[in-house]
Amino acid sequence: MKKLFKISYPVKVLLLILVLSGCTKKLSDMELMTDHSWKWDKMTTSSTNSTVISMVSLVSALFTSEEIVFDFTTDGNYKVTAMGDSTIASGTWSLQENDTKLMLDAAEANIVSLTKTQLAFQESQSDSTGTYTLTYYLKN
Q1: What's the per-residue H, E or C state across 44-90?
Q2: Among 47, 49, 78, 111, which residue has the least CB neighbours within 10 Å?
């Protein structure tokens, strides 16, 4: 009778994993945005305009994750700092349309990715060659 209630070590480990994985709280998109500072990663474009491509390449080459930091707060404000303490941009932000759009002041961007480790958002622009996108990648 005693052997019926004895659980093998692998089964105990499996049960522990199942119990602990059920305890992990999934963060809301608002919590993901405000949970930590976001560091610059890179910028890409779909443009075929050589001037836009050069500008994106220059920005990607000059900015490093230690130099440009985005902070989003729960009260709907954001701040972008450079080189540790110089504020280069600030304003209000919000998530719209079931958290698929990021509003930075009056500018609207589509959220491409929002995880604990990456925020990517994309905006549309137009020039003489047509409409193109700029995608900004931030990392934790």
Answers
A1: EECCCCHHHHHHHHHHHHHCCCCCEEEEECCCCEEEEEECCCEEEEE
A2: 49
